[in-house]
Amino acid sequence: MDISYILNELGEDRDSYFNAVAPPIVQTSNFACRTVEAMRYALQHEAEVDFYTRGNNPTVDMLEKKIAALEGTEHAIAFGSGIAAVSAAVLSQVRAGDHVVCVKKPYTWTNKLMQRFLPRFGVEVTMVDGTDPANYLAATQPNTVLYFLESPNSFTFELQDIAAIAALAKERGICTVIDNSFASPLFQNPASMGIDLVVHSATKYIGGHSDAMGGVVCGTRQMINKIFETEFMTLGAVLSPHDAWLLLRGLRTLPIRMERIAQTTRQVVAYLQTREEIEEIMWPFLPAHPQYQLAKAQMKNNTGQFTIRLKTDKIEEVDLFCDSLQHFLMAASWGGHESLIYPAAAAYKSGNYKSSLPFTLVRFYIGLEEPEYLIKDIEQALEKMKGR
Ligand SMILES: *Cc1c(COP(=O)(O)O)cnc(C)c1O
């Protein structure tokens, strides 16, 4: 399917809403039935009909159809946040007594789900270094039901060999779930590599404007309907029609934003490579990176995140560099129009949380600004850090 068709036409039914170009926000909790027979049908087929917005809503459905098509899956289901989508996908596959193998250092709240939440319900989890698929196999037990992947993963951007891990799982009847948020649905399609459920935080690239939250799980109709009937309807992490509309609006410009972000990121990284204040750039798209070939093979392009390690042993210098940046906002999240940094050093002084990451790491997200504008800013912050 053409990306242009998906983004501009698929799921749009303009005849039914005055030929409006922008779809309506169907801001209703309820849909009425004309007859008992119609209501009987709705109750028996709630996954397929608009009956109650915690189940289906036309504005949300349109978003689901487009993201499923971008990921090349039969179906998708939207949630009120990315972590709700991650949790629902994982919970749909496990019961007490089961075992999960998960990549080490996933997104913070995925980590909490794996390490703190699942064990409360009798689900055991082993975290593995995902850079070698053999580690998934080595951790597999007779009761392993799920492999969880996040590639590239949070903060340090290590990749997992998606096709290899999916193949190991298939041979053993193990389900695979991947968090694909970092790659965007344009630059990596794990279902085509054999992954069963593909999850996105739509808050990030899909929305793209830092003004709405959402999440999506993509998979076969059967697997998505199972999630609908259990985790989706009972936990109720519903995406509001208004936020679905904002995410749909973001989707319209996803290709041009991703292309621009990819290009600017390459320019900023190229500049950083010339600076002696930087010890390391963690970015799988550098030819010297050990996973460069894998990145080229399983991703269509780079995205806007990378992490640098500053060449210093003083946290004050890291603070000074970060505080000196004028055009990078210091914040969590990413995927919007605005460039961001997230310093690992921020986790060091808060007392109640001991970071496992060195304080010299600073994660960058490159947004839509002019490359020179960002590079100049980094340059002056590096000079300040060195007291020049
Ligand atoms: C942000 C993020 C999430 C969580 O998404 P929310 O929309 O914030 O709930 C999950 N996975 C990854 C990789 C993320 O970056």
UniProtKB/TrEMBL annotation:
A Pfam family annotated for this chain is: Cys_Met_Meta_PP
Check the record and name the SUPFAM superfamilies matching this protein. Answer: PLP-dependent transferases
Is Nuclease a UniProt keyword of this protein? Answer: no
Q: What InterPro entries does the record tag this protein with? A: Cys/Met-Metab_PyrdxlP-dep_enz, Cys_met_metab_PP, PyrdxlP-dep_Trfase, PyrdxlP-dep_Trfase_major, PyrdxlP-dep_Trfase_small
Q: Which UniProt keywords apply?
A: Pyridoxal phosphate
Cofactor requirement: pyridoxal 5'-phosphate
Q: Which organism is it from?
A: Rufibacter roseus
Q: What is this protein called?
A: Trans-sulfuration enzyme family protein
Under the heading PROSITE patterns, the entry gives: CYS_MET_METAB_PP
Family as reported in the entry's similarity comment: Belongs to the trans-sulfuration enzymes family.
Identify the CDD domains for this entry.
CGS_like (cd00614)
Entry keyword annotation includes DNA-binding? no
